[in-house]
Design goal:
The chain has 123 residues and is mainly beta. It has no helices and eleven strands. The strands form two sheets. Strands 2, 4, 5, 6, 9, 10 and 11 form a seven-stranded mixed beta sheet that branches.
Length: 123
């Protein structure tokens, strides 16, 4: 079992930045690839970014490329999502998730989920 707790969401103006954190506990954090997903009201949960167990590999949704950066610190059992140049369409609940399969963009591949953190970008 892995428990995931997100933090760092909030209200920000368009063009601003936020850094989300996801703290993991339970089984060894470095066993898992991690990802961020998001879900806006009335929409499906969508993939944002993923990172391999050692942090050497990352991949991003087109909407996140060039603006968001995923990273992890295995010593702190934490994965991060740095979000810059935020847009109103980035408004959503952001979730972190864990899987043993690197790079998967399908939500069904992920075994463990956090409770989510709200990000609201005002225009």
């Amino acid at each position: 079992q892995v428990q995931l707790v997100e933090s760092g969401g909030g209200l920000v103006q368009a063009g601003g930045s936020l850094r989300l954190s996801c703290a993991a506990s339970g089984r060894m954090f470095s066993d898992y690839s991690m990802a961020w997903f998001r879900q806006a009201p009335g929409k499906d949960r969508e993939f944002v970014a993923a990172i391999s167990w050692n942090g050497h590999l990352t991949n991003y949704a087109d909407s996140a490329k060039g603006r968001f950066t995923i990273s992890r610190d295995n010593a702190k059992n934490t994965v991060y999502l740095q979000m810059n140049s935020l847009k109103p369409e980035d408004t959503a609940v952001y979730y972190c998730a864990a899987t043993t399969i690197y790079g998967a963009s399908s939500r069904w591949t992920y075994d463990y989920w956090g409770q989510g953190t709200q990000v609201t970008v005002s225009s």
